[in-house]
């Protein structure tokens, strides 16, 4: 072997030996900063805050609102609450900058506390239905006893739920800033657009910059509505498809009476009766949505109507119905490898309604649509918990 080949072989062997001895190349360091932009369009009951609710009570149709949440997390701790600014495009219509402020609130799950002294184990049950169709399928409803659930007796298949990726949040020894915050929380105009160049200037992160295109803007309202009832009693739920939606999921919660305790009626559009369907009303990545469409837990983006089964419609005539249209995501990084910052923009659209509700009757005195006010001096009649009770949290599953 000539001298050059021997030298090359020796160096190669030494390099291989070093790899074995020292292990693989070290992983690149994580980004200094992670920035998330969450943009949502909401329509129907409760959207637009008190002004939107007032409009619906006055019979002026479904309210629509838009919301924007900015969250910056950093491995560099901040020294003040003022950590930076988001500089949006003029098309957002919210001024030249949105201030990012830290928070003194403890992150979720870190507050200390225990059961209140007057805690009483819940008494009642939850009846769970699933699937779009004129009638429910076999094995329905799944009945869950609240007391057993509170004691840790979880039905098979209900231990794991669908969860979205977690955005940045406050943590000890790390920097954090968010908008809206206690100093700036103005409403997002309905005419707002995310399209254009965005940048972040912050004391806890390198400069961040990215540009959004037309397919990465606020999603349109879904205009969820009941579109009539079949002779069987099944109700047609319809919505206006969103062009950029990756899939849809619907859920219903209603109240009933059963055996002296609370009875909660729950339904989802999923083809499977799992806990996943009850936890999917939030942002999910397009890849995760695709998996859930394949497994039958999410409706395809081409679907624009779902039949609420007759059994569910009868059990929950005033059920609170929600729909979410999952949207696209846009991901950015400062560099392909070992970026100093990464950013994510995620989108969704949602809507809600109360079944059979004439919104102009929302202000009547007994909380029941079309009901008569109570007569003075007469004991109140026992009634089911109404949609108002549901919204106030008077009837709520214990998880």
TrEMBL record:
Keywords: Signal. Residues 1-24 form the signal peptide. Residues 99-118, 359-399 are annotated as: Disordered. This is DUF3344 domain-containing protein. It comes from Sphingomonas ginkgonis.
């Amino acid at each position: 072997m000539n001298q050059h080949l021997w030298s090359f072989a020796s160096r190669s062997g030494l390099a291989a030996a070093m790899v074995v001895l020292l292990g693989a190349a070290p992983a690149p360091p994580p980004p200094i900063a992670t920035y998330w932009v969450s943009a949502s369009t909401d329509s129907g009951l409760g959207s637009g805050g008190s002004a939107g609710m007032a409009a619906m009570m006055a019979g002026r149709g479904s309210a629509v609102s838009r919301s924007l949440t900015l969250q910056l997390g950093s491995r560099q701790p901040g020294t003040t609450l003022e950590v930076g600014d988001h500089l949006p495009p003029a098309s957002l219509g919210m001024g030249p900058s949105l201030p990012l402020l830290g928070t003194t609130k403890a992150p979720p799950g870190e507050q200390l506390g225990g059961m209140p002294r007057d805690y009483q184990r819940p008494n009642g049950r939850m009846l769970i239905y699933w699937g779009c169709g004129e009638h429910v399928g076999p094995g329905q409803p799944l009945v869950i006893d609240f007391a057993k659930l509170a004691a840790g007796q979880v039905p098979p298949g209900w231990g794991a739920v669908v969860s979205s990726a977690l955005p940045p949040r406050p943590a000890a020894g790390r920097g954090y800033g968010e908008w809206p915050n206690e100093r700036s929380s103005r409403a997002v105009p309905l005419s707002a657009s995310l399209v254009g160049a965005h940048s972040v200037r912050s004391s806890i992160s390198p400069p961040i910059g990215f540009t959004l295109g037309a397919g990465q803007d606020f999603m349109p309202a879904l205009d969820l509505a009941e579109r009539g009832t079949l002779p069987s009693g099944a109700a047609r739920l319809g919505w206006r498809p969103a062009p950029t939606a990756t899939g849809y999921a619907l859920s219903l919660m209603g109240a009933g009476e059963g055996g002296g305790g609370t009875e909660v009626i729950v339904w989802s559009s999923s083809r499977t009766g799992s806990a996943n369907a009850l936890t999917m009303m939030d942002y999910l990545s397009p890849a995760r949505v695709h998996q859930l469409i394949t497994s039958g837990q999410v409706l395809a983006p081409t679907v624009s109507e779902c039949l609420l089964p007759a059994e569910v419609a009868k059990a929950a005539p005033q059920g609170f119905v929600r729909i979410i249209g999952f949207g696209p995501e846009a991901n950015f990084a400062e560099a392909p490898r070992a970026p100093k910052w990464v950013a994510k923009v995620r989108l969704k659209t949602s809507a809600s309604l109360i079944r059979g509700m004439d919104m102009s009757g929302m202000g009547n005195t007994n909380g029941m649509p079309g009901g008569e006010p109570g007569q003075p001096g007469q004991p109140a009649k026992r009634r089911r918990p109404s949609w108002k009770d549901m919204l106030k949290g008077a009837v709520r599953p214990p998880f």
